[in-house]
Design brief:
alpha/beta; six-stranded parallel β-sheet; eight-stranded mixed β-sheet
C-alpha cells in the first residue's frame, strides 16, 4: 500500500521537530503539503519532510488525497484552522491545548465530532505505565476513599531561556493563552481528569519567579475539587531545577507515589503491595500520543485517543484556574 497523505498545517509549536522525526521514521504515512503563515518556517520544514509548501490553505482542504492534518500552529490560530479542517473532513491531530479557553475549545470539539473525523491531541502521559496502573487501581477501588491526589509537571525552561528564539510566541499570552502553568499543567490536568473525572471547582496561585519572559507566568499551584469529592493539587512551571515526585495518590485503603520515575504502591487489596520497594508489575507503555494518531488514521484503533470533548474540558478547567488566580477566589466549572 502507498503511504497515506497528510499535511502539516502550522509548524510553530516546540514539539514540531519531534513530530517530524516520528513522521520520517514511518513508511505508512507521508506529509504531502506544508502550510504556515510564516513562509520561511513552512519552507524549512517542508524541505525536511520532502513535501511541497502551499501558499493558500484551500490547496490542502480541496486535496482529496490528503486524509489528515497535523496542526502545530500558535494556539490562537487553532480555531479557524480546526474549523476549516473539520469542514473538509480531514482527520485532526491538534497540539495541546486545544483552545485558548472554554468557548473556542467547545466550538472546535463540536465541529470535530459533527465531522466524524479521527481526533487526537498531545497528551502523551496517559500511555506511561505508572499512569495506566494507578488509573486501573483507582477504578478497582484499591485506594478506598481517595482523600488527596497530586500531579506535578515542571522543568527549567524559563531558567534556561529555552523559548528565546523561534518558540518565543509560547511566552506570549495573546498567542498561547497560557504561560508555564498552563503549558505544562495541561498534561497534569489531563492525567488527573483521566483518573478521577470531571472537576467541580478550582482555585490557584500563578506567578512569575525570575521574570525572564516579562509578565508571563513561570509557575503555579492549583487546587481542584472533583465532582466525586476528591481533592487534588496540580503543580507546573518552567523554573524548577528538579521535580522528583510527580504523582501521589492517598486513600483510606491505599497509597502510591512516583519518585524519580519509580512507583511505590501500598494496598491491602493487592498482594505484595507493601509500599517499601518499587512496584514493577506495570503494563506496557503505549506508543506516543502522536504515533497513536498516525496508527489510527492508517486503520488502527481509535480507543486510546483523547476525545474532542476531553480536550475541550481541559481547556475549560485551565481557563478557570487562571481566572481563579486573577480574582483570588474559587471558580465553579460551568457546563
Amino acid at each position: 500500500m502507498p503511504p497515506l497523505d497528510l499535511a502539516l498545517v502550522g509548524a510553530a509549536h516546540i514539539h514540531t521537530p519531534n513530530f517530524i522525526r516520528r513522521l520520517l521514521a514511518r513508511n505508512d504515512v507521508r506529509v504531502k503539503s506544508v502550510w504556515d503563515h510564516d513562509a520561511h518556517r513552512a519552507a524549512r520544514y517542508a524541505a525536511e519532510l520532502g513535501a511541497a509548501t502551499v501558499a493558500e490553505l484551500a490547496a490542502i482542504w480541496e486535496d482529496e488525497s490528503i486524509q489528515g492534518v497535523i496542526i502545530c500552529s500558535e494556539t490562537n490560530r487553532h480555531e479557524p484552522l480546526v474549523m476549516e479542517a473539520a469542514a473538509a473532513k480531514k482527520h485532526l491531530f491538534v497540539e495541546k491545548p486545544l483552545g485558548m479557553g472554554r468557548d473556542d475549545a467547545a466550538r472546535m470539539a463540536e465541529a470535530i465530532e459533527a465531522a466524524g473525523v479521527i481526533f487526537q491531541t498531545g497528551y502523551f502521559m496517559r500511555g506511561q505505565p505508572v499512569h495506566q496502573f494507578i488509573r486501573e487501581q483507582i477504578r478497582l477501588g484499591h485506594f478506598g476513599k481517595i482523600t488527596r491526589v497530586r500531579h506535578s509537571n515542571c522543568h527549567s525552561g524559563s531558567l534556561g531561556r529555552w523559548f528565546d528564539s523561534e518558540w518565543l510566541w509560547m511566552t506570549d499570552l495573546a498567542q498561547a493563552g497560557v504561560g508555564a502553568f498552563g503549558d505544562l499543567g495541561t498534561h497534569s490536568l489531563d492525567i488527573l481528569m483521566w483518573m478521577l473525572g470531571d472537576v467541580a471547582r478550582v482555585t490557584a496561585v500563578i506567578d512569575t519567579a525570575v521574570g525572564n519572559y516579562g509578565e508571563t507566568d513561570e509557575f503555579g499551584e492549583g487546587l481542584l475539587v472533583f465532582e466525586n469529592g476528591v481533592v487534588g493539587t496540580l503543580a507546573a512551571g518552567w523554573v524548577d531545577v528538579q521535580n522528583p515526585v510527580t504523582l501521589l495518590v492517598s486513600g483510606t485503603e491505599g497509597h502510591a507515589y512516583v519518585c524519580e520515575g519509580k512507583l511505590f504502591f501500598k494496598s491491602g487489596h493487592v498482594e505484595g503491595a507493601d509500599g517499601q520497594t518499587p512496584w514493577s508489575e506495570l503494563p506496557e507503555a503505549w506508543p506516543h500520543a502522536f504515533d497513536l494518531f498516525l496508527d489510527a488514521v492508517v486503520g488502527g484503533s481509535t480507543g486510546p485517543l483523547v476525545t474532542p470533548q476531553e480536550a475541550a474540558a481541559r481547556s475549560a478547567v485551565m481557563e478557570a484556574m487562571y481566572r481563579a488566580a486573577r480574582e483570588r477566589r474559587w471558580v465553579q466549572i460551568e457546563d
